[in-house]
Write a structure and sequence with these properties.
The chain is of the alpha+beta class and about 300 residues long. About 45% of the residues lie in helices and about 15% in strands. The strands form 5 sheets. It has a 3-stranded antiparallel β-sheet with strand order 1-5-4. It is elongated and about 65 Å long. It starts with 19 loop residues before the first strand and ends with a strand.
Length: about 300
């Protein structure tokens, strides 16, 4: 097995779009706080990731002597490096770092599925993957204090986009006309929970007043993008509809904080993706714009 073909980067967050860029030694490929990945270092990782002598591999010498890179691979490598440095900075801020045992455990976990293939992975790529695994395992195991109930409500009241937390309710019916009738009744003073219990065809949420579990906005966007878009545009407590989806037609409401259990808010607040996004938002991150920009929710992505 070719040692480079065995590489499957272990990414905390998914990266990016396709395309190609040209590599040359021109400053930093990325910086996170005081940490810097040089263009040379990125070039070495890319050369290890794709056989440079294989025609059409996406890593070939151009006429000017530079190396033509597969930008998709570059963004994945940058995402791995950047996320690791973010975790390293946050661990240091909390007075800790990875232990030699964490490094050993990460190495063992990565090698276990196929020791022969792992042994053939270039050392630089091994180090990159081991570092990320060890830092993530150490960081995710930290006990993080949850804000008080009042603080959680204040965070949620700042809005879905700011908090990253969505606590919605809905009434699901079969037709747009039925949904509009629900909206009309609500505007006339009807109780949302009572209508959800009597009219919603969602047997899970209907008996619970139409309440949906609190979740990160990313989860809503991934599972029911139509509802996510409507919730993100909604004001607290104001019914919106009809909202079509594959399931039918929805009348939705973004639950105000006084209608949300702080325990629900706390559980979502401390989920690892949201916690990582909060940490990343406080770190100075630079990416060479030829490769894209860093988004804490997805990694390095192409610009435009």
């Amino acid at each position: 097995m070719n040692r480079r073909a065995a590489v499957v980067p272990i990414l905390l967050l998914a990266g990016a779009a396709t395309g190609c860029s040209t590599f040359s030694d021109n400053g930093a490929a990325a910086r996170v706080g005081e940490h810097e990945l040089s263009q040379d270092e990125l070039g070495d990782l890319l050369a290890d990731s794709v056989p440079a002598t294989e025609p059409g591999s996406g890593s070939e010498s151009g006429p000017d002597g530079n190396v033509e890179l597969d930008a998709d691979t570059a963004r994945r490598l940058l995402t791995t490096w950047i996320t690791t440095r973010i975790l390293e900075i946050d661990l240091a801020a909390q007075g800790t770092s990875v232990s030699p045992q964490a490094i050993a455990d990460a190495t063992g976990a990565l090698a276990a599925p196929d020791p022969e293939a792992w042994a053939n992975v270039p050392v630089g790529l091994q180090n990159l993957q081991v570092e990320q695994r060890a830092f993530f395992d150490t960081w995710s195991a930290l006990e993080v204090a949850s804000p008080s109930d009042a603080e959680l409500r204040s965070i949620y009241d700042a809005g879905v986009a700011a908090s990253g937390i969505l606590c919605g309710a809905h009434i699901l019916v079969e037709t747009a006309g039925a949904a509009q009738d629900i909206v009309d009744q609500l505007e006339g003073g009807a109780d949302f929970a009572e209508l959800a219990a009597s009219d919603s065809i969602d047997s899970n949420s209907g008996p619970n007043g139409g309440n949906l579990p609190c979740a990160p906005t990313d989860a809503y966007e991934a599972n029911v993008p139509e509802l996510a878009e409507a919730f993100l545009a909604a004001d607290f407590g104001v019914p919106v509809g009809p909202v079509p989806s594959e399931a039918g037609y929805h009348v939705i409401v973004l639950r105000p904080s006084d209608q949300v259990d702080p325990g629900e808010l706390g559980a979502v607040y401390n989920e690892l993706p949201l916690r990582f996004q909060r940490v990343a938002s406080g770190v100075d991150i630079y990416v060479d714009p030829r490769f894209g920009s860093f988004d804490p929710s997805i990694g390095v992505r192409a610009i435009g």
